[in-house]
Amino acid sequence: MPSLTVQFLGSGDAFGSGGRFQPCISVRGSESHLLLDCGASSLVAMKRLGVDPASVDAIVVSHLHGDHFGGLPFFVLDAQFRRGPRPLIVAGPPGLRERVLQAMEVLFPDSSRVERRFELRFVELLARVETAIASFAVTAFEVLHPSGAPAYALRLAHGDKTVAYSGDTAWTEVLVEVAQGADLFICEAYSLDRAIKHHLSYATLKQHRARLTCQRLLLTHLGPEMLDRLDQVDEQVAEDGLTLAL
Description:
seven-stranded mixed beta sheet; single chain
C-alpha cells in the first residue's frame, strides 16, 4: 500500500494559462491530509475534482503571492459552514498570519474576526527548522522569489517517504539540497527557455538535472510558453487531476 498519495489540484500559473488552476497540491498520508499551497482557484478545483475540503488537516504555503495563498480566505469561509470542530493548521513563512487576515478582510469584511466553529491555527516556518505539521515533518528552505516575506522550497517527510517542492524561485543551489533523495521532487518550470526574472525555465533546470538526486522529477507551475512547447520536454509534466501513489 502506498504511504502517500499526491494529487495535483492546480498545476498552472497565476494567470490560468491553458485553463489550469493555480498551484495547489494534495498530499495524503495514512493519518492526515495536507495541501501544498492554496491559490485563489483552489476551492473550485477541489470541488470539481471531488476532494472534500473538510478532509484537509493542514495547508502549507510556500510564499505569499496570491496564486499560492489567495485561496485561503475562501477556504476558511467555506469551512465555517462545512467543517467540524477539528483545527485547521495553516503554515508558511513569517508574516503569513497577518497577510492571510488582511486578505480575508479585503475580500470578506469582518471574516477574520468572526467566532469560528474550529480553531484556525497559524504556524510560522523558520528556514531549515523541521516542524511537525499534522503527521508530516516539514522543513523549509529559503529560495529566490520576492514576495514581501521569505519564499520557501519545502520538504515533507512522512514515514519513509519524502516529497520535495520548489515553490517559485530562480535557480539556486538550495534546490540541489531540497531534491536530495526525495521520492518526488515537484519543481517549477514556468517557461521553456525564456528567462523570466525570479522563475525557473526548463532549460535552466536541464542544465542542473544530473545534480538533482530525487527519485522522480515532476514539472509544474507551467506558463504559456511551456504549455505551447511540451513536445520539447523530456520530463514528466503535471496536469490538473494527476494522481500519484508513492
